[in-house]
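Dear H.,

Thanks for agreeing to be a second pair of eyes. The structure we're designing against is below in token form, covering all 203 positions.
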């Protein structure tokens, strides 16, 4: 996710085991899980490689997020109980804090982003949608990591989240949906730009 291993790079169990000073068994399990999450690709008779993400693949994953989160936002009025409202206000407070705190912390931005978007997914109240969301969670985590690495985008992203929460609490669902769509579209643009920079740097 940090770009230590480049897209298309081959990963070998024995090298990773030595790098992290562990046995090959946990490395093998980690590689298997990352393959299942879509981060790695297993090529028969060739090995395991970091997946190369096409622009279309990234756009497709984020388009699915827009669709699923739009449904969640439309169901929000029925799902926002007093307890959920308190949770949303707590998240909003965390967002305000990381914006005003001064020092940039990627992990904190990433954690808040994930927490809020998971809440939107939960509004769907649909087990199958939850399974689909879980399937693409690692990909979304990688895209967040790329997008939020820019401090300016991270702050802009939290401001978009705050506007989204305010719209939800005011019952402005259409506004919230438009904010979220724009938010994810800007994430897509940032991810595509940064991944292209990484590819050009390797040429």
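And this is the sequence the design step returned. I haven't edited it by hand at all.
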């Amino acid at each position: 996710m940090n770009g230590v291993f480049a897209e298309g790079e081959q990963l070998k169990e024995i090298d990773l085991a030595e790098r992290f000073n562990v046995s090959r068994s946990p490395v093998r399990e980690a590689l298997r899980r990352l393959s299942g999450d879509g981060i790695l690709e297993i090529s028969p008779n060739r090995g395991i490689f970091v997946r190369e993400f096409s622009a279309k693949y990234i756009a497709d994953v984020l388009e699915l997020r827009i669709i699923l989160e739009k449904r969640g936002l439309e169901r929000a009025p029925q799902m926002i109980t007093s307890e959920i409202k308190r949770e949303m206000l707590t998240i909003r407070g965390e967002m305000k804090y990381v914006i005003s705190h001064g020092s940039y912390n990627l992990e904190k931005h990433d954690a808040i982003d994930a927490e809020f978007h998971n809440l939107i997914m939960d509004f769907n109240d649909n087990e199958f949608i939850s399974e689909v969301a879980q399937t693409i969670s690692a990909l979304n985590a990688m895209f967040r990591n790329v997008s939020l690495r820019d401090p300016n985008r991270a702050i802009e992203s939290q401001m978009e989240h705050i506007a989204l929460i305010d719209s939800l609490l005011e019952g402005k669902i259409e506004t919230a949906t438009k904010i979220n769509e724009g938010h994810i579209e800007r994430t897509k643009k940032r991810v595509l730009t940064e991944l292209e920079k990484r590819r050009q740097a390797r040429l």
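Two observations from my side: The CA atoms of residues 66 and 181 lie 6 Å apart. The radius of gyration is 18 Å.

Warmly,
E.
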